Amino acid sequence: MVTGHGRIEQAVRVWLPVGFFLVLALFPFYWMAITSIKPDSELYNRHMMPLLVRNPTLKHYVDLLTQTNFLLWTWNTMLVAVVSTAISLVLGSMLAYPLARMRFAGAGLIAMMVAAIYLVPQPLLFLPLADVINRLDLGNTLTSVILTYPTMLVPFCAWLLLGYFKTVPRELEEAARIDGASRLQTMRQIFLPLCTPGFISAGIFAFTLSQNEFLYALIFLTKSSVRTVPVGVIAELIRGDVFYWGQLMAGALLGSIPVALIYSFFVEHYVAGLTSGSVKG
Amino acid sequence: MSIRSEPLLRVALPPRRAFSLALWLDREAVFSWVMMTLPMLFLAALVGYPLVYGILLSLQDRVVSKPGHFVGLRNFITDFHDPIFWRVAVNTFVYTIVATLLKMVGGLGLALAMNQHFRMKNLMRALLLLPFIVPTVLSTVAWMWMLDPAFSVVNRVLIGLGMRTPGPSWLGTPILAMFSIIMINTWRGLPFYGITLLAGLQTVPPELYEAATIDGASGWQRFRFVTLPLLKPIILIVTLFSVIFTFADFQLVYVLTHGGPQNATNLFATYAFDIGMGAGQLGLGASVALMMLPALALLIVALTLYMRRA
Question: Which of A134, A211, B4, B159 is the most exposed place for a label (fewest CB within 10 A)?
């Protein structure tokens, strides 16, 4: 009896608050999903119970994929995210390795500058950058965002990788040096292959951040054929005062899936990066 | 590194000429600077230069597609005489402070709730992080639909619970619109707080709680005198992070309200966008954006110094 009582009490203590937070966190996604499969007759009927669907339909998804450039936007988003993540990992490790391993005058200052640059928010830079991109004649090209996303991703990756690099023991590198390997060989052939988990963490973060980016894409990409998903959804599925809610929710859901999928595969890396890399540095 | 290995290296290498490029490049400082040149040039060109150029722009009467002239501080004087600018400044501070406090308290609650033993904890943790993972614009569109004037599901649930019809106009009333953007920012940022603090909680040694219990501490006292002091460094860092990115927030407000109604939710970033991109006044827009700099610089310096010490 006593243990039964304790178990119920424990269940309440755990699931009351956790359940509360879960409902709060997940309801918008449920609402996205249920809206996207409701026919318009149910969507805009105020007398029906809104939380359920009677006659589910895939019409909004079909419309989204056939009447808009959604697939093209998805391709653009992926391409931009993959390329800018790759650039950022390469440039980031070129900064992080010397800062983690070498002793030279100014190392501390550079490390602080990298951290400070990571914290410079985009709204401080977008107007001058818009002018720069215009003068380079890069407006409406994917190059414009592939070039500008790494401005936030490089310092971020460098910072995360710096934290990771410091946790890797030095013995292997020292052995390679004794065997006559140059510093470059040691870094590329011995050290970097040891750091795959660090690269996965930093890569997922960078990928998520590029998928999430909106301001630069909004300014630089004004032609439908070069848009990314967030900008395309906002600019083309909301036409004046007319909202295509079914399509909007279908687009929001489909647009979230790539990030959610990658995240679900690497959630442990993600949490590790979140809690150690960005916080303890 | 490798103070010990240096003489060994020289023994291991075959005899060489007095100067060798390969050996010179192998020196710690030379190798480091050569390695860092490319990323540093990149950051100088696309962060350093725009930052300086933004300051120059703010001192010009530059409009899109026309060369500007130096006008000194005239743009900043215009800002100071602009009632909307002051409205925007107040909005930004209210938004940042209230949203950060909510995320802090809520995040701590989430962390404490999750710091118990139960099944499927990892799954729960992954699900709870979803709002933070999903692209902000897309989840904000969902919230927009949830708060729609005619078909708001929030209102329909509230009416179902006995509220008067037709229910509040969430995005059409100034106070409620501010309340809405604060809530949605909290919804998105709370998991980040919660999961980070949870990781901090898990590093607290259980012996400390046992010792406190033996000394007769109540649950609240254990939280107040054991948990909280140990969490303080993490809370501080997460808060500074969150303050910086909430202060400069753009996406959420741009999508949900465009700064309306009557500028009630206009923030520095959205107002600078309106002036610089909407009205094409690059110089004036740059001056509005730069008004964020004093507060941001203070926060950024504080955070970098703190992270360096940690």
Answer: B4
Rounded-to-integer distance, Cα A156 and Cα B89, Å: 28
Helix (H) or strand (E) holding A242: strand A242-243
Amino acid identity of residue A145, one-letter, is V
The partner residue sitting opposite B42, judged by closest CB among A154, A229, A274, is A154
CB neighbours (10 Å) of residue A181? 18
CB B128 within 8 A of CB B194: yes
AA letter at B276: G
Q: Give the distance from residue B310's alpha carbon to the nearest chain A alpha carbon, in angstroms.
A: 7
Do the Cβ atoms of B103 and B186 come closer than 8 Å?
Answer: yes
Domain locations along chain A: 2-57, 68-280
Which of B57, B137, B153, B249 has the most A C-beta neighbours within 10 Å, making it the best mutation to test the interface with A?
Answer: B137
Checking ipTM against 0.90, whether it exceeds it is: no
Q: How far apart are CA A88 and CA A114, in angstroms?
A: 13
Query: What does the pLDDT look like over A174-195, one tens digit per residue?
Result: 899 899 888 998 899 889 999 9
Domains of chain B, start order = 79-309 (1.10.3720.10)
| Helices A2-36 and B121-128: angle between axes, nearest 10 degrees | 40
Contact B18, A96 (CB under 8 A): no
Q: Are A269 and A200 in contact (CB under 8 A)?
A: yes
Burial class for A41, CB neighbours closer than 10 Å (0-12, 13-18, 19+): exposed
Tokens 């390469």 sit at which residue? A90
Pairwise CB contact (< 8 Å): A115 & B269? no
Which class is domain A68-280? mainly alpha
Minimum-distance CB partner of B50 among A18, A108, A132: A132
Read off the pLDDT of residues A46-81 as tens digits, 9 standing for 90 and up.
Answer: 777 778 888 888 888 998 999 889 999 999 999 999
Q: Give the nearest partner residue to A125 out of B31, B51, B129, using CB atoms.
A: B51
Whole-structure pTM value: 0.88
Vertex B193 angle, CA B190 and B196, to 5°: 145
